[in-house]
Structure formats: structure tokens, C-alpha cells
Design a protein that fits this description.
By secondary structure, this protein is of the alpha/beta class. It is 38% helix and 18% strand. Among the domains are: 82 residues, Phosphorylase Kinase, domain 1 (2-Layer Sandwich), CATH 3.30.200; 177 residues, Transferase(Phosphotransferase), domain 1 (Orthogonal Bundle); 182 residues, Response regulator (Rossmann fold, 3-Layer(aba) Sandwich). It has 23 helices and 25 strands.
């Protein structure tokens, strides 16, 4: 990241620029912030290139192509203007390094990681090819590494299969060393050419070398067309797949989907593990979060006088869009907004939309269910009291009593009610698959607030999970021992009683061990105590101990064992352990423990002060855990209703719109990427136990 220069724009469309991410002969890439606050990478093409009609036509195709491709392994487009003097394209910001950067700095990747990398890229290409496109520049620099897998970027030379190339005769588009023979010789390339490039990328990732060598482009292209690839040092597990991908004859190469199957062994996928990746992403995310807010733009409205039948508020909104180039679209949006509730010129009753609350209010999870209910009630009241609200909200609460049978009955009642537009919940961790399917069949959006992803919660086309999955919570702890309280000797206590949680945390730390730090792992069987592990940590002079487990009761036993052994460093764990039961059972031994959690403390978070005051006033109590997130879930649904294109909100429109929003709530910013996955950068928080209670330290990247 480099500071903006005096020549750099402070705004690109609706995006506010923050820093430069890179620059080249074609243009500049900026890190920018959207109107909703989300980070984006905005590529701006220099005017001298945009003046070339052929180049501008190709850039239009880039924007169109990138917008058509969706999937978990491609970076989605968030905005574009192909007709601007300097056209630009905005995509989601991925704070991870490129594959080229990673291999250049730390050498070849482990074979299992390369297989996982290849499978993800192959599926990304399958999505590209399924849209009738070819990427045509698959190379390490166009592959970003995220916490959950690779991302394919830069559709700058993607085109429709069979389309006429917009390049001079004989010109080669792509990067020598990764081009297919047919692309290198006659400039023709399609889906099979992308698979050839994938094979080259896998060789580079596994060996650090290119299969056709380096040097002048002409020599590399000659060897690509006429010589066999050099696969020296390529692991046997990759040899068959790579050899097939690098066939000179396009007809003999596997399809992208077939390559993915070859790399995963038809289901036995390798874990995604890139050494040091978690720490690097945590560092880059923190750096991005630390950037100052951009300077505000002038707010003077230079539009026409308000027309009859449009409120002053709507006219100002339309004028603001006119100022930034919205033109007729702003006028239509304002008119459509007036018609959305069935009123003409702002008169007539506003419609009421019902949100269902599916929660355990009388079973073992009643405390969490009550927090959901109170947060949702306050959100509905705040919406209905808002000035100029175009519709009213109603809340219908259903109690599943914490049982599978009750959950299915609630799902049946809510999904068959024509008045229910969306549902917050279920609030319980374990949700029967039949419940998920029932909501899905009825096209009813469910916004899941607190249920843990490790207990069966998944996203579907209508199931919207706004909490980060358990698999990313260790990133908060890694940030703490790398940046907040640097540790040189880290001791992991891997609890065999909760193997899934233990593996997730242990694996994350093994993957992202801080440079210069010593990492040791002590496994504890399910029936064993923690005394030996605690004494081992003390004898190793560990300054940080991580309880890698998901049991509050066993976490408390570990805390007592560490205290008895005389451990004086920092103990850490993730949110599954941070419960009232842990604080009660651990007692004084809980003091100083640091946790990474997915819920915020509204009594401490600045953005939730008004919510906390309203909660105290209405319920004579401080908000419970996840109450603020339930408040935000209702706000997210209300935003989806307000931004649907239909004149009357419908279930399907709301369900689809949820995943397109960038919503600033009182607990976090909520937005999604890839296969409906919530972005996690603003949804993880650090806590430290002080005086018998968990004190909120703040978002992990800012602590």
C-alpha cells in the first residue's frame, strides 16, 4: 500500500480512494471504500489507453465477463463504469497475497496445499467456462490466497468463446510461460487453454519453476509449442493431473471440472494450509482497518428544483445521485420509491411486513432466545418510529422450545404464513436439515444470528448466516500474539474431547506461527486431565498458551490446571469456551484469559450506545449476548425490503437481495462474498477476563 499522490482522484464513481495498491502501464489500482463502508480494489485505466476504441471495447467485455461469473473461488465485481473518461472496475478487496508473491518469498508450497489450490482454481475456471467465457490469463499473479482458499482475479482479457479477438493480427494475449501452445502459436484460446495454464500454475506452485523455462518471451513460446514440459521435482501426487493438463492437443486435456475431480480424488479434498497465511492476512486486514476515513466530498446539490409529488427528502436524494452521474436512474428510483408502498405522492397508509423470529424461548437455550427476541423487538420499534419510513414492520415470535420437533413445527407455521416475509433465526446451534429445507422450499429468507457453523449451520440461496464461522476465529488470537502482545513461545493444548474445535485452532496456529516464535503442541486425550499439559507449558517457559478446544467445562479445568502449575503468561481460546459456565467454574483462574468471539458487547461498543440505553429503558436490563446482532438482522432485512425492485416486497426478492447488501449495523458491518459467505473482517472481537467478567477489547484488527 502506498499513499495517494496529488494527482490521484479522491473519488472514483461512488468509491472514496484510500491508498494505492499498485500501478502499471495500463493504469492504477486503488484501495477504496464504498458508500456503505466496504473495502474494494478499484482498477482505473489510463485515458490514453481508453481513447483506443478497441481497448475500450475490450474493457467493456472485461466488466461484463467478470459480472457474469460467480462462485466461491472468484472475486466478485462490486461496481464499474466502462464509459468514463478513465474507465474503472471495482471488485471485492482480498487482503491475501498473490500466489506469485507467496512462492517468491517462501518457496514452493506443500503438495497437499497445491492440490487444494488446483481444485479451487479448477472450480473457478469451471464457473468461467460455464458462463461461456475463457479467462485467457491464468497465472500466479492473478491468483490471490484467502483464508479459505484461492481466488481467481483479473478478467481483463476474458472473452466469449468463439468471439473475434480485438487485437492486432499475430498479437499474443496472455503471459508467456503460462500460454497454451495454440494460444502461443496462432492466438486461439478457449476453455482448454485455461486448463493448460492451470497445469503451468500447479508446476510453479509445487516446484517454484515454470514448465517451459524462463528467459526471452520468444524462446519460452517456442518451447511451449515444440518441447515437452520440464516436470523435474513435481510430486507424484500431481504428476498425472499436470501431465494431462499440459497435453499439446487441446482435445486430450481434461475439462476444468474433471481437473478438479482429479485433484480432489473425487471427494477426498486436501486441507487448505499455506504457511504464514493467517498471520499475513491478519496483518494486512489490520493495516486496512487502520486507514483513516477519506475526506468528505462536497455535498452541494446541483440538481433541478423538486418536482410536484416528490418529497424534499427524495428530491435531495435524487439530486445527490445526479451530482455523481446517476441521471435519469435517480429520478426513476425516487419515483419508484414513492410507488413502492402503493401510495401516490406520499399519501395513503403504508404497508406492514412481518418478520418471523424462530427462537428457543422456554428450553435450554432460552437465555439466547430472549436476547434475540429483545434485540428484534427494539429494531422493529426503531424502524417504525423512523421519520419517513415507507413501510411498517411487525414481529411474529415462535418458540421451538429447543427441540428438533419444535423447530420443524415452527418452520412449518412461519413458512406457510403468507404474511411472513423473512425470519430471524433459528437461535439454536443444532438445526435439523429438514428445517433448513422447509424454509428453502418456501423461498423464505432466514437470517441466522448466533448458531455456530460447526454445528451444521450452512448457507443456501435463502439461508443468510451473519456470524463468522468458527474456522476463522483463531485469526483473532493470532493477531493478538503477533501484534498486541507478541509471544515468542506459544504452547497449544489440543483437547481430544472436542476434536473438531481442537483441530481448527491447532491447524490455524501451525499454519501461521509468528516469525521467530517457537510453537509446541501438547495433545490431551478426552479422558485425561490437563495437569501434565500445564506443567509442560511452564517447563517450556511459554509466554502464551492456547486452549484448542470447544468445551467451556474442560476449558475451565485447563484454566485451573495452568493456575496450579504457576503459569504466568497469556492464556487464550475462542468463543465456544467463553460462557458464564467457564467464568463460574474457572473462578480466579479465568483472570487474564483472552478470547476471540463473534458477538459484540453493546455496552462497550460505541456504535451501540443508543441501543443499550433503549434496552435498559424498555427491559430494565443490559442487552444479552447476541441481542445487538439480532437488532442488526432485522435492520438487514428492512434494508433488503427497501431496496427490492418490486412494487410490493416478495419473499424471493428479499432472499436474493440480502446477499447483495453492504449494511452498517450497530454490532458490525455486514456484507457477503463468493458463495453467500459473510465477510469476517469486521465480525470478530477480542475479550479479556478481568474481575470475573469478560471485558470487550474491540474488533480484533484494532486491538
Amino acid at each position: 500500500m502506498r499513499p495517494l499522490t496529488s494527482d490521484d482522484p479522491r473519488a472514483i464513481g461512488a468509491y472514496r480512494t484510500l491508498v494505492r495498491l499498485g500501478a502499471g502501464g495500463m493504469g492504477v489500482v486503488y484501495l477504496a471504500r464504498s458508500p456503505g463502508g466496504a473495502l474494494a480494489a478499484v482498477k482505473v485505466i489510463r485515458a490514453e489507453h481508453a481513447d483506443d476504441p478497441g481497448f475500450r471495447a475490450r474493457f467493456r467485455r472485461e466488466a461484463e465477463a467478470a459480472g457474469r461469473v460467480t462462485g466461491p473461488w472468484v472475486v466478485p465485481v462490486t461496481g464499474a463504469d466502462t464509459e468514463a473518461r478513465e474507465p474503472w472496475l471495482a471488485t471485492e478487496f482480498v487482503p491475501g497475497p498473490s500466489l506469485a508473491e507467496t512462492v517468491d518469498t517462501q518457496g514452493p508450497l506443500p503438495v497437499g496445499t497445491v492440490r487444494a489450490l488446483g481444485a479451487g482454481l479448477a472450480r473457478a475456471l469451471a464457473a468461467v467456462h460455464g458462463a461461456g467465457l475463457a479467462h485467457r490469463d491464468v497465472k500466479p499473479g492473478n491468483v490471490l490466497l484467502a483464508l479459505d482458499g484461492p481466488r481467481l482475479i483479473d478478467f481483463g482479457i476474458a472473452r466469449h468463446d468463439g468471439a473475434t479477438a480485438l487485437t492486432a493480427t499475430g498479437a499474443v494475449i496472455g503471459t508467456p510461460g503460462y500460454l497454451a501452445p495454440e494460444q502461443a502459436s496462432v492466438g486461439e484460446s478457449g476453455a482448454a487453454g485455461d486448463v493448460f495454464s492451470l497445469g503451468c500454475v500447479l508446476v510453479y506452485a509445487a516446484t517454484g519453476r515454470l514448465p517451459f523455462g524462463q528467459g526471452p518471451a520468444a524462446g519460452v513460446l517456442f518451447r511451449t509449442v515444440h518441447e515437452d514440459p520440464d516436470l523435474t521435482g513435481l510430486p507424484d501426487q500431481l504428476l498425472g493431473t499436470v501431465t494431462a493438463c499440459l497435453s499439446k492437443d487441446p482435445a486430450h486435456r481434461p475439462t476444468a471440472e474433471q481437473a478438479a475431480e482429479l485433484l480432489t480424488g473425487r471427494g477426498s479434498a486436501d486441507p487448505w494450509s499455506v504457511p504464514g497465511l493467517s498471520a499475513l492476512i491478519a496483518e494486512r486486514s489490520a493495516a486496512a482497518l487502520d486507514l483513516p476515513e477519506p475526506e468528505p466530498l462536497p455535498t452541494t446539490v446541483l440538481g433541478p428544483a423538486p418536482a410536484r409529488g416528490i418529497s424534499r427528502r427524495r428530491a435531495l436524494a435524487a439530486g445527490a445521485v445526479l451530482l455523481t452521474g446517476g441521471g435519469t436512474a435517480a429520478w426513476l428510483a425516487a419515483r419508484r420509491g414513492d410507488a413502492a408502498d402503493g401510495r401516490s405522492g406520499g399519501s395513503g397508509p403504508r404497508p406492514t411486513y412481518t418478520i418471523g423470529l424462530h427462537a428457543d424461548l422456554s428450553g435450554p437455550g432460552r437465555e439466547l432466545g430472549l436476547a434475540h427476541q429483545r434485540g428484534a423487538q427494539l429494531a422493529v420499534a426503531a424502524h417504525n418510529a423512523g421519520t419517513g419510513a415507507e413501510f411498517a414492520l411487525a414481529l411474529r415470535t415462535e418458540d421451538d422450545k429447543g427441540t428438533a420437533e419444535g423447530a420443524l413445527r415452527v418452520a412449518d407455521r412461519l413458512s406457510t404464513s403468507p404474511k411472513v416475509l423473512a425470519v430471524v433465526g433459528p437461535s439454536t446451534n443444532s438445526t435439523p436439515e429438514a428445517v433448513v429445507e422447509r424454509y428453502e422450499r418456501s423461498n423464505l429468507a432466514t437470517v441466522v444470528v448466533a448458531a455456530r457453523s460447526s454445528d451444521g449451520v450452512s448457507t443456501t440461496s435463502t439461508r443468510c448466516v451473519i456470524r463468522p464461522p468458527d474456522s476463522v476465529l483463531p485469526a483473532g488470537l493470532i493477531h493478538y500474539v503477533v501484534n498486541t502482545s507478541p509471544a515468542k513461545r506459544i504452547h497449544i493444548i489440543d483437547d481430544g474431547a472436542t476434536p473438531q474445535s481442537g483441530w481448527l485452532i491447532t491447524h490455524a496456529f501451525r499454519d501461521a506461527a509468528p516469525t521467530g516464535a517457537t510453537l509446541t503442541v501438547h495433545s490431551v486425550k478426552a479422558d485425561d486431565g490437563f495437569g501434565p499439559a500445564a506443567r509442560s507449558a511452564v517447563s517450556a517457559r511459554a509466554d502464551a498458551v492456547v486452549y484448542a478446544g470447544g468445551s467451556a467445562a474442560r476449558g475451565a479445568r485447563c484454566a485451573r490446571a495452568l493456575a496450579d502449575a504457576g503459569f504466568t503468561g497469556t492464556p487464550l481460546s475462542t468463543g465456544a469456551v467463553l460462557t458464564p459456565a467457564f467464568l463460574r467454574d474457572a473462578g480466579e483462574a479465568a483472570e487474564g484469559w483472552v478470547f476471540s468471539e463473534a458477538w459484540t458487547d453493546p455496552t462497550a461498543a460505541p456504535a451501540a450506545k443508543a441501543f443499550t440505553a433503549a434496552h435498559r429503558a424498555r427491559f430494565d436490563a443490559v442487552p444479552g449476548r447476541w441481542a445487538a446482532e439480532a437488532y442488526d438482522a432485522v435492520g438487514l432485512i428492512a434494508r433488503a425490503v427497501r431496496t427490492t425492485s418490486a412494487t410490493t416486497a416478495e419473499r424471493g426478492g428479499v432472499a436474493q437481495r440480502l446477499f447483495l447488501l453492504d449494511y452498517q449495523g450497530i454490532s458490525r458491518r455486514i456484507s457477503f462474498h463468493g458463495a453467500h459467505q459473510v465477510r469476517t473482517g469486521t465480525g470478530m472481537f477480542l475479550y479479556r477476563v478481568e474481575d470475573g467478567r469478560a471485558r470487550w477489547l474491540g474488533p480484533y484488527g484494532t486491538v
